[in-house]
Task: structure prediction
Amino acid sequence: MSVPIVGGYGTGGTGIASKLAEESAVIAGRSEARARELAGELGARWRVLDVTKPLKDDEILAGVDCVVMCLDLADTTFVQEVFRRGIDYVDISAEYPILSAVASLDALARQHGSAAVLSVGLVPGLSNLMARHSLRYVDPIEHFDSAILAGLGEKHGVAGSSWILAHLNDCLGQRRFEFREPYGRKTAHRFAFSDQYTLPQTLPVASAATWLGFDSFLMTQLIALARVPVLRGLFRRQAVRRFLLNSTQRFQFGTDEFVLATQAYGQNGRYQAWLRGRREAVATGLVAVEVVRRMQEQRPSAGVHHIEQVFQLEDFLPLLEQHGMSFADSLTDQRSREAIGSVPERVLKKV
Result:
């Protein structure tokens, strides 16, 4: 099996490449030096691949079984070439316009027998699977929230940090969420993750919203400042973004833990779930590699799918548990709460 990881020497790509079998991983990107260096460290293969330019060499994708995309694409030209060759495709992007454009290629993928899985990672990814899991207890879902509490003790990649800084001004709104001990209730801000836009298209979810907070109070407040009307223009300036980006790359403080909290509301109650672990890049890598493995063993039908249309949360929980992550959930029955005012939440299970 040959699996080029496009952008494989970035933080997200490295997390995937390090967990993919040596004989399968191909570190791919524009920088020959970076691709060669990481491939040498991992015992993997490498190749130069610039997805911003038309493919001039048909051999670049020869013998490829699946492409894992770790970059935010400017257009779908490269993806179309992948589909025309009948190659499978996995995308870890959180950018909705990109995923929407790839999803529009469903007919092309089906025509050539390619299977594509989008929304792969933590958010989107596990958040999508937790939404599907919530339907066991609340169906239909009138509203679904997913909130990620990110630790700043983990060094986030340049691409991921740049994406967050680029969207600081988007999706106004904030809420407090319960992230469980030791974090308790913390403020999170509405953010432009793609799952809130795609879930109402793929599941019986009337509306959805995704939120972002940090274990650092100051960093969470930075999002609030960036959304103050008189300051929004300041945070759009390239010089300010470069300064913030350089700061995030040079300094790490807080923990490397994350907590993904989800809440599903419906007429028959409220269902909450929490996934806690260390290092978001590790979680993304584990999910992506497991998706690639399962696509080889139990290949989904040709076409473009989001992760929750093909897989279930239970497909990934044992693997996540092996890497020190934990899952807990609770259900509040709406009818009981209305009858007696309030009932304690009961833990359904812990993994």
Q: What stands out?
A: The chain has two domains: 3-120+282-311, 123-280+319-332. Residues 10 and 159 are 8 Å apart (CA to CA). The radius of gyration is 20 Å.
